[in-house]
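[INFO] parsing input record for FAS1 domain-containing protein
[DEBUG] input buffer:
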Amino acid sequence: MKKTFLMMVVAGATVFTSLSVSAQTSATKKAKTAKTTGMEKKEGVMVGGALMVPSKNIVANALGSKDHTTLVAAVKAADLVETLMGTGPFTVFAPTNAAFNKLPAGTVETLLKPENKAKLTSVLTFHVVPGKLQAKDLKNGQKLKTVNGETLTVTRKGNMVMINGAHVSTADVISSNGVTHVIDTVVLPTM
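[DEBUG] output buffer:
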């Protein structure tokens, strides 16, 4: 009788182990299927109707935003695409199309002309700071040295952050080579 009981226990353990392995295999297959079919939950921030994900670089993320087409065109005209696709890290304060529309009529068109490439580059690099600064790193009164050599000033009131008077509307858009903060105004360097 002991022998029969022991055989039942061993058989039960074998069945339980087999079911457990089968359940794990099934769960693994479902997870793999979800990943390959795009069903996995993606982390990121929605900007301009597109999901900005940490696995893409700053430029690749910006290309998806319908709110940043003017900025993308300007970055291309200034030949800064390769730079901003580089390893960085960079902190970019990215003006929206609406921000560019606030500039005096004809300003964007003038800056995009080949003969004004140096001015355009100066404007764009005034929006870029070396390093990866998230919103939590930005302190009231902080001075940020930009890639063009000039300085931006941070104003912070509670959760509201401003850069040279431009409001940060979406903070901490994390990319593989830095972070982007969407701003509502184009900040201009002393040209």
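[INFO] The CA atoms of residues 111 and 120 lie 5 Å apart.
[INFO] shutting down worker
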